[in-house]
Amino acid sequence: MSETKLTYTAESGVSGKFVETAFDEKGILAGIRFNHEDDYNFAFDTVDAIAAKAPDKEAMIYVSNAKEERRFTFGDMSRYSSQTAHYFKSLGIKKGDRVMLVLKRHYQFWFSILALHKIGAIVIPATNLLVKQDFVYRFNAADVSAIVCTSDGNVSDYADEAAEECPQLKTKIIVGTPKEGWHDFNSEFSSFPEVFERPEGEEAAKGNDTMLMFFTSGTTAYPKIAAHNFKYPLGHFITAKYWHNVDPDGIHFTISDTGWGKALWGKLYGQWMCEACIFTYDFNNFEPKDILSMFEKYHITTFCAPPTMYRFIIKLDMSKYDLSALKYVTVAGEALNPEVFNRFYEATGLKLMEGFGQTETTLTIANLRGMEPKPGSMGKPSPLYDIDIQRPDGTSTDTGETGEIVIRTKEHIPNGLFTGYYNDEEKTTAAWHDGYYHTGDTAYKDEDGYYWYVGRVDDLIKSAGYRIGPFEIENVIMELPYVLECAVTAPPDATRGQTIKATIVLTEGTEASPKLKHEILAYVRKNMAAYKWPKIIEFTKELPKTISGKIRRVEIR
Question: Both ends of the chain: CA-CA distance in Å?
């Protein structure tokens, strides 16, 4: 359907001022456009606006690791974030300052990020898994001047050790148990005024101003810093409404903690733009039975998690839990094995709707609401992005041909696409040039326009003249019930250039043996073309991963 034939209408609620959408003849989202985007600030234009309209509407149900519950309305979030903004300003934090948040899933994260948006300071989410050297690199690379950190574990100790080598870090604020040398968030913020007037003129933070910086996963090198402006939340309207399918009267649960970009996909921007309630369980260790009990107790209606967590969930007897409130489920973070899709569908009757995006983007390819998913397919390009699959020479691939996913930016830069890698023009230009942003991910498109993930450009296996995506081999091996995880890599081979190796983690109670190895090989040979057969199978207790949970294939080659 061409752009000129689309009929746009404003979305409902406070988002209608900023978002217009259009649909095809099947009722599937076909277009999106924005108004007043250059003036947009999520904290004022979404959260405070909802608070003014419906102050008692529930914004978040929070459950601590100890299972203690707190509930927050939009009125609460507006007041507490305003108090926090005043508090941060009193500590010298101002527009443009870079502030790191290491807050797990504590509710104070939401107070803090909204406060920093109101001030115009730049938010840098970070995981509590960082150690001293991680902090040193990040503090220096992003020129971090303040940190708001959990007291849980020893993460604040690592931050202290790093701070000794980073004199630009002036302000340290702790959430939880007070600590010498740190400002005590919980006892200090609440004495400040409950209203924070929207700044004007040069102090106003909006539109093209930098709002947020993410450290990328860093699977092969030091993480890059992807910068986003204040238009970034607008890009997540599709994420929440047309992929997560959130209900303004429902409860949405995205499992990620706030140290990762995925949390802002599912625990903040789009969901609150849709005026939905988010559910936050501040757990320390992932226990699938606890997650299923939360569905039952809180009547969660929509859910999103990475495939790894669904793999653990489907190993349980799901019939023991009342999941009747659950209406819609989505999956992202890594490619989805069809076996996980099928097992979850058999247990619940719900189809996992896969989506794809990067730290540098919002949701770019997805099975949107109203689409019929193909198990294992990422879906189709979001109408927010102009996407192509290209060969190395820049020409478009044919149906079924693997190439790199790129985003066209010559005519329009979509809200949600990063503005560049902070302080790294070389890496920015390497990824974004000649009117295209190069994702570094490969896929092919089928005859129906669905995209199928193959792997990172660097992960493609070139063996005996064939180009092979590791994921398609992993999919077949993952069909075996005793396989928990699998990574396919390509050690060098004198004859073939590269050979194919499968490194496998078995389910608890399954013993590795030569017999099991032969059984796996036999299954692969029965279900896959000969040029894709692994020549090496190795069993391991765990796969090497980045702190974000992505497999480091470079370590197992």
Answer: 45
